[in-house]
Amino acid sequence: MRSKAYCVKVAPISWQRLVRSGSRFYDSQARDRVSFGLYLSQQHNNEPFFDKPIHMDVIFYIAPPKTVKDKATCPKSNSPSLESLYKFFIDAIKDILITDNRVICSLSVKKVYDKEPRTELIITEVE
Questions:
Q1: Residue 87, Cβ neighbours under 10 Å: how many?
Q2: 33 pLDDT exceeds 90?
Q3: Which residue would you say has higher pLDDT here, 116 or 13?
Q4: DSSP H helices in the chain
Q5: Domain count of the chain?
Q6: Helices 82-93 + 30-44 axis angle, to 10
Q7: Domain span at residue 23?
Q8: pLDDT digit string, tens, across residues 54-80
Q9: H or E stretch including 55?
Q10: How far does CA 58 lie from the centroid of its chain?
């Protein structure tokens, strides 16, 4: 059973819809996905993709607003939504860590405040 942990020390990014400019669509997040993917590919070290069923534990650490004082880590309940953070994350890891999002069979995702914004991920193959 294969398992690996990753940490991307960049503030989590939420997914946004494509923008239409005239008759063309513009993906404003393409550059963000590439930079996010570069962090992951450096940690992955050219290992094979996870192509068997996997379980993912994902934690999004988001910088606290000024109203939250003296708490190093606490639950986060306002924007960005957990779903939009997860959508961007899945788009960024596809073809870097996993072959397709269909290999994800179970998932644990949460977002919390922390003084150091980052995204942590643990992928474990399920038998």
A1: 15
A2: no
A3: 116
A4: 30-44, 82-93
A5: 1
A6: 60
A7: 3-125
A8: 999 999 998 877 776 655 555 556 667
A9: strand 54-62
A10: 7
Map tokens 């999004």 to a residue.
60
How far is residue 127's CA from residue 123's CA, in Å, rounded to a whole number?
A: 13
Q: What letter does residue 94 receive in the DSSP assignment?
A: B
Mean pLDDT of 7-25: 66
State the Cα–Cα distance between residues 49 and 9, nearest whole angstrom: 22
Closest CA relative to residue 64, chosen from 55, 52, 77: 77
Average pLDDT, the chain: 79
pTM: 0.77
**For residue 7, what is the domain's CATH number?**
3.30.1330.70
Q: How far apart are CA 70 and CA 7, in angstroms?
A: 24
Residue 8 clears pLDDT 70, i.e. is over it: yes
Residue 84 · residue 14 · CB < 8 Å: yes
Residues 6+ apart with CB under 8 A from 37: 92, 93, 96
